[in-house]
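Input record, target 12 of the design panel.
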């Protein structure tokens, strides 16, 4: 059950990260890419 919760958190963080990227300004696209990369690294842990 604990692992399932962690998995759900990972999915939520990925989705919110993607939404933040979509809503963020074009000037912030580099920040968006970095945050996306960080989320991917966290998701693979």
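The sequence produced for target 12 reads:
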């Amino acid at each position: 059950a604990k692992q399932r919760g962690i998995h759900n958190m990972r999915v939520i963080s990925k989705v919110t990260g993607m939404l933040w990227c979509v809503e963020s300004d074009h000037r912030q696209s580099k920040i968006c890419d970095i945050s996306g990369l960080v989320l991917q690294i966290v998701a693979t842990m």
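The chain has one domain: 2-44.
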